[in-house]
């Protein structure tokens, strides 16, 4: 695909799939075992080892299902309230509604786009039935988990981290995935590693892990792989709960095994691209991402700029259109939930309830940042941003 000038179009995101992933998928196809089986088990074990600190990991078919499973395992149900951010994809909040509970939203920090602990504290004080907290590590930068953990401890509630953007990432030297009751990662096509579709629930809590493992496959008390691979087939199983169909097939896990091995290399490349953007975009009417804690590992799933609209004659939508005309695909992360019809109308949410999230949204544009980008691609993106900003500056 080419732009109006005949140059190759730089899409917003592309996965990097190597011959290793392809060969592993083909091996699964030839093995005859294509649903959850040996590859899914291997991926889970590898992932738990990668996170470290003795955690266990359960694969599932999406991060959305992983969040649902984690909350269900914690007993979240009708009448309960779960505190989270409006500056996220709808999945973070919709899983709360799956269980008949109610999400409660608190505004974000202007610089990181993460849940603001002070705003979260104020919101929690208004929640008589608060039973959980879901922080979202936006773009791959960790929330202030020290402050949020203190808040959760004060109310005696568990934290389930939405780490869809955050592999690998750290907070105060500890891997995301080791800090809370449960953490959920995403392997969607645009994420830092991918299985096409998929997710992983990680926890130290063996009882929670077992409940997640049972509920991800119809509430059956034994995995199908275990039932069909024994030398003496153990055909008997029991349905112990009304579960779901959330298991990850081996075809997806086969990709994940090799993507995980590349996670640190992928991280280094995304970090390098972010640094090139930081250097190349100075002096323009925009704000580049703020890294709050320089010693933490930021996974750089996203690189989100904020346009200084007061200094420009165009809005964010026009900026994205002008970038596309120069052959660069951009996106927006996120359209806040308080502006989405379902959440807005159900909870009577207004823009002024979340002034920071509303303002950030009006300015935010996500630039391409993926490992298959060449240095020349990065320079083209930088040049396109310069062209737009310089042409339409006041």
Radius of gyration: 22 Å
What is the number of domains? 2
Shape, principal axes of CA atoms: globular
Low-pLDDT residue intervals, each spanning 5 or more residues = none
Task: Quickly give the structural class.
Answer: alpha/beta
User: What is the CATH first-level class name of the largest domain?
Assistant: Alpha Beta
Q: What's the average pLDDT?
A: 96
Do you know the CATH architecture of the largest domain? 3-Layer(aba) Sandwich
The helix content is 25-40%
Please list the strands of the largest sheet in the order they lie side by side.
1-9-8-5
Question: Beta-strand level of the residues, as a percent range?
Answer: 5-15%
CATH level-4 homologous superfamily of the largest domain: Type I PLP-dependent aspartate aminotransferase-like (Major domain)
Total of DSSP H or I helical runs spanning 4+ residues: 14
SSE string, helix = H, strand = E?
Answer: HHEHEHEHEHEEEEEHHHHEEHHHEH
CATH topology of the largest domain: Aspartate Aminotransferase, domain 2
């Amino acid at each position: 695909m080419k732009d109006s000038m005949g140059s190759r179009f730089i899409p917003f995101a592309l996965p990097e799939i190597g011959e290793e992933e392809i060969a592993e998928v083909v091996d699964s196809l030839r093995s005859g075992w294509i649903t959850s089986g040996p590859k899914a088990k291997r991926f889970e074990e590898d992932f738990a080892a990668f996170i470290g600190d003795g955690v266990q990991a359960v694969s599932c078919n999406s991060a959305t299902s992983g969040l649902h499973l984690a909350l269900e395992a914690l007993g979240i149900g009708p009448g309960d309230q779960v505190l989270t951010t409006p500056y996220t994809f709808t999945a973070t909040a919709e899983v709360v509604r799956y269980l008949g509970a109610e999400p409660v939203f608190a505004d974000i920090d202007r610089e990181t786009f993460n849940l603001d602990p002070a705003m979260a504290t104020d919101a929690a004080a208004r929640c008589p039935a608060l039973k959980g907290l879901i922080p979202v590590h936006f773009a791959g930068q960790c929330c202030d988990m020290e402050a949020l953990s203190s808040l959760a401890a004060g109310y005696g509630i568990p934290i389930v981290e939405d780490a869809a953007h955050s592999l690998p990432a750290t907070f105060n030297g500890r891997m995301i995935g080791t800090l809370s009751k449960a953490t959920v990662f995403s392997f969607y096509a645009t994420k830092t590693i991918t299985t096409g579709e998929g997710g992983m629930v990680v926890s130290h809590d063996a009882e929670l892990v077992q409940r997640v493992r049972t509920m991800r496959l119809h509430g059956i008390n034994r995995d199908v792989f275990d039932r069909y691979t024994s030398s003496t087939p153990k055909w008997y199983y029991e349905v112990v709960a009304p579960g779901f169909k959330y298991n990850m097939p081996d075809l997806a896990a086969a990709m994940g095994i090799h993507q995980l091995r590349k996670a640190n290399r992928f991280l280094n490349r995304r970090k390098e691209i972010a640094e090139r953007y930081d250097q190349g975009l100075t002096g323009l009417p925009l704000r580049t991402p703020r890294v709050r804690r320089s010693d933490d590992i930021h996974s750089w799933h996203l690189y989100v700029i904020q346009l200084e609209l007061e200094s420009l004659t165009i809005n964010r939508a026009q900026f994205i259109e002008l970038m596309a005309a120069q052959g660069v695909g951009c996106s927006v992360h996120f359209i806040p939930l308080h502006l989405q019809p379902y959440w807005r109308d159900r909870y009577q949410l207004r823009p002024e309830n979340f002034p920071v999230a509303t303002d950030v949204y009006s300015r935010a544009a996500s630039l391409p940042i993926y490992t298959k980008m060449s240095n020349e691609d990065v320079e083209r993106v930088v040049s396109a941003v310069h062209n737009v900003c310089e042409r339409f500056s006041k």
